[in-house]
Write a structure and sequence with these properties.
This protein is mainly alpha-helical and 142 residues long. The protein is built from five helices and no strands. The chain starts with a helix and ends in a 7-residue tail after the last helix.
Length: 142
């Protein structure tokens, strides 16, 4: 048990990021699937992107607060600046998400559920990199 605790402490940030990432993914997928299984048609390109955007807003809001508190343990007093950087970085990965969804579903005719799962992996990795080095970076100005 001591060995597990030691490993956790050594890789705490990555482990916590993965846990929060799974929860964030569940929030995003839950909202997306809830929308496309009830009120929005994923075969309609506009409705597909509306579902994508709404699920993104829910997931990013959840992600900001959980990453700030549990992953990067931010002590920044400039919360508005930090939140703005977080949302801007996530806009970049939203555009990546939308481009892959459009290419995979609309242009290639692939199943939107499978493409969405693939997108989540790509976006999760990109989000960690942006959060670590651009948003929650440890420097004296925060």
């Amino acid at each position: 048990m001591e060995k597990i605790k030691e490993l956790y402490l050594k890789y705490k940030e990555i482990v916590n990021y993965l846990i929060v990432g799974v929860l964030t993914t569940l929030v995003g997928l839950g909202v997306y699937y809830g929308l496309v299984f009830t009120i929005l048609d994923p075969k309609n390109p506009i409705q597909l992107q509306v579902a994508n955007i709404i699920s993104w807003i829910a997931a990013v809001t959840f992600a900001y607060f959980t990453n700030r508190r549990f992953v990067f343990e931010s002590k920044s007093e400039n919360v508005l600046n930090e939140a703005a950087r977080f949302y801007l970085a996530r806009v970049g990965t939203l555009l990546m998400d939308m481009g892959i969804m459009f290419t995979g579903v609309t242009l290639m005719g692939l199943n939107d559920k499978y493409v969405k799962l693939f997108v989540q992996v790509v976006v999760t990795v990109a989000n960690y990199i942006f959060s670590k080095f651009l948003v929650f970076k440890k420097d004296s100005s925060d």
